[in-house]
Amino acid sequence: MGTKELFSIAAGHAARFREKNDSRPHHPFHDYFASVDAFAGPLPQQPSPMVDVLEQLVTAAEPGLHLTTGGRFFGWVIGGSHPMGVAADFLTSAWGQNAGNHMVSPSAAAVETVAAAWLLQLLGLPTSSSVGFVTGATLANFTCLAAARGEVLLRAGWDADANGLFGAPPITVLIGDDAHTTVFSALQFLGLGHDRVVRIATDDQGRIKPAAFERAVADVSGPCIAVLQAGQINTGGCDDFRSLVPLAKSKGAWVHVDGAFGLWAQASALRCDLTAGVEQADSWATDGHKWLQTPYDCGYAIVRDELAHRRAMTIAASYLPLASEGERNSSDYVPELSRRARGFATWAMIKHLGSSGVGALVDQACEAAKAVAFALGAEPGIAIGNDVVLNQVIVRFGADLPPEQGDELTKRTIGALQREGVLFASGAAWRGRHVMRLSVSNYQTDADEAKRAIDAILRAYRRERRDASVTER
Predict the structure, then answer these.
(1) Is residue 320's pLDDT more than 80?
(2) Between the CA of residue 93 and those of 18, 286, 327, what are the distances in Å?
(3) Strand bridging mode 198-200 / 172-176
């Protein structure tokens, strides 16, 4: 079989899977153990025809795939992998480029240069900032905080990139109580510790309290990194950058913003007030595979000080080409030498949507989230636990019941929704109670999809509440 025929068959399977978005339940048919059984077998001893392997792969994989590409997948903040981005990603795989430097693939390096410039304009960030194309916000946070660690220590007379942390001046890390877990992981990976931080009190939306932050800043002496947040994972709340960033910088702190999804409020004329002042920070982490709808994996590490960024990341060897003025070696901005050419899908999605399309996509998701919250909040016994300012909705079932009963009814309702499969939602703990969290981040989630979700949620809740009442009698 030729390459063209094999690729055509694969594309046909991909299109067929996407065409099931409306008819297939929003849950896998196989769990993890059934999926292992589907793939398992003895080590192959002889070659197999490519088309046979492809068909076996599809047969084994599809039952264990989640419908994250569907318009009612609300379990986590996961974008829908827009067809434009997927098509560009098909080509990225077929082209087989290593995006490590400008010589091994001039196009891969060049497209990152252009896509990075567009990205900075979309997000309203300093246009001289450097951008590393990484796997996602986890590695983006790591990359930015590595640049922060090196720079604040260098200001204190210590070269951490050369000498490590043994004997280095201590770094104070200020971080909100409701920061995302991946930021704590990045601090751990960087030798700064996930517990050796100054945690700042937050309000009922998970936002840092300015007065508490001001008190913490007053106690700082020496190198300092302040971690702020655009888009708290449960509420969507954003820190008050206009007040917090100047406070941190008054003590010479490097300000990093974890904006995995919330930073995209910058692309919306209706919601950019939520992130006003964010451009004054020193670094920003965000994802493409969330609101930009690129396929996995794609994230961006953005740093105001390009020299600090490169100092933390550059990998040098005699066999690797140096970048002359005006050229870009992509590996200078990420902790990877060999890596996927993520710039192609980013360029394609921005080219396809344009700045107005990106803003409209963000607004559509947020309006759908507001519609769901409004309808559910009008139902007796259902409470919405957050101000729905972006795409996140916290739902508490049995809010009029004793707390333990409300927890149980919430779990039962989530379970019923997951079994039914009209939509997928997940549970979370928020302020000591169990809640359902809806994350609306798919390009297909419009008013109609929101209405279908509302109907399914209310139906499941009413049934589970009625059944619970019958059982108690």
Answers:
(1) no
(2) 19, 23, 24
(3) parallel
